[in-house]
Amino acid sequence: MTSFARRARAAAARMHPELSLVSFTLLSHLEERRGCRAADLAAHYALDKSTVSRQVAALERAGLVERRADAEDHRVQVLELTSEGAAVLAQVTRNRREMFRERLVDWPREDLDRFAAYLLRYNESTPDGAGGGYAR
Q1: Helix-helix angle 21-33:49-61, to 10 degrees
Q2: How would you classify the pairing of strands 65-69 and 77-81?
Q3: Contacts from 83-91 at CB under 8 Å and sequence distance 24+?
């Protein structure tokens, strides 16, 4: 698992030098949810709020994320991708998929199916058995 995580971080750095694996994950979540609060990101990924705050600040400085007032409660700030953030995320996603295709091209279909099933099973489990809460 350590090797897998190390490779994932290295691959993220090669795809976009300013976009860490955590940043990529946060951008993906914002795109999927069409925006959310920083506190929601921290809770979803079980991260410290200060960690999310630093990541979000870097994404804002890079012009990839912006804050806006929530339509229902103007005291709440919602994070959303900018058009540049969406474009960067789309490019990094294409690059990641191509990298995976290249690494898995020689795998038999049965192995790919088992690998995918195991990843889903792993991602859906938590230590307390509650499921969810982890990036897919």
Answers
A1: 80
A2: antiparallel
A3: 85/27, 85/30, 85/59, 86/31, 88/16, 88/19, 88/27, 88/64, 89/24, 89/27, 89/28, 89/31, 89/64, 91/16
Q: What percent of the chain has pLDDT over 70?
A: 82
What CA–CA distance (Å, rounded) separates 47 from 39? 9
What sign does the CA torsion over 61, 65, 66, 69 have? Answer: negative
Q: What is the C-alpha separation between 126 and 98, in angstroms, rounded?
A: 29
Mean pLDDT of 90-95: 88
What DSSP line would sit under 17-68, residue for residue? TT--HHHHHHHHHHHHHT-B-HHHHHHHHT--HHHHHHHHHHHHHTTSEEEE
Contact between 78 and 68 (Cβ < 8 Å): yes
Threshold 0.85, pTM exceeds: no
Q: How many other C-beta atoms can be found within 10 angstroms of the C-beta atom of residue 89?
A: 20
Mean pLDDT of the chain: 85
